[in-house]
Write a structure and sequence with these properties.
The protein has 11 helices and 9 strands. With 280 residues, it is an alpha+beta fold. The longest helix has 19 residues.
Amino acid sequence: MGSFMQEKNREKLISIQPYFVMEADDFCQHVLIENGISHFFSFSNKSAQDITVPLLVDSCSNLIFEYRDETVRTHLIGITVEKRTFSVKANAEYFGVRLQPSFTKFVREYQPKDIIGKIVILDDLPSTRDFCKIMGVQKDFNSRMYTFLQEYSKFQSKGRDDTKADLFRQISDLIIQRKGIVRVSELEDLAGYSSRYINKIFEKELGLSAKQLCSTVKFQFLLSDLNKGTSESFTSIASEYNFYDQAHFIHEFKEFSGKTPSEYAREVEQRKYVDSIKNI
């Protein structure tokens, strides 16, 4: 096996589905970056009507607990490979867990490829039924967060050591460190394995190829830059993320988001994206 590079300034993939911030109310988050968890978040819908929230291409999974009318419904939003939507119900509050690129091992009934692009309800699955009930009685952000960590650790402890899973984690971590800007041929050199073997592991652990993960991770970092308003120009961001030219950048961004970069950046500014997030 090859020698993986250790980056001095480690990148962290903490991007979120931006329309949860822009469409819903009272968005809060607590960033963790530990044991496969990116962060916890919450939002609500105080209106009397349901909201249809766009979901953009995303290499992370989102576990979302919907608290409404004394009942709880648990959604697992699998890796999103093309634009879709999520219905935020009227007069409901939500608690979410954003998972780093990996398959949620506690869902025993599905393989990674089975959840790609889908939303699965977990409340009635044998492997997660009790877990969902425990989460359902928690009343506030902190109790939900701590309870999730306790229950999640039980699932983690049941897992067995797996060298292929370890290799997947090392390669996916490298992809994140490079912001998705890495060729599969480079991964071959660093890992000491063929692209065919690497993709076989990625299919098993994630349900995507290594190249697909690179593309989605790059989009997430790019989106995060636009959300923060940190980029000086679209020309510079196209260069930073190794697009052939600005036209290529615009085309790929629109394919993943449904909007041009300028349309999206304008929406972020108008909706005061940064000011709408409360860190706790």
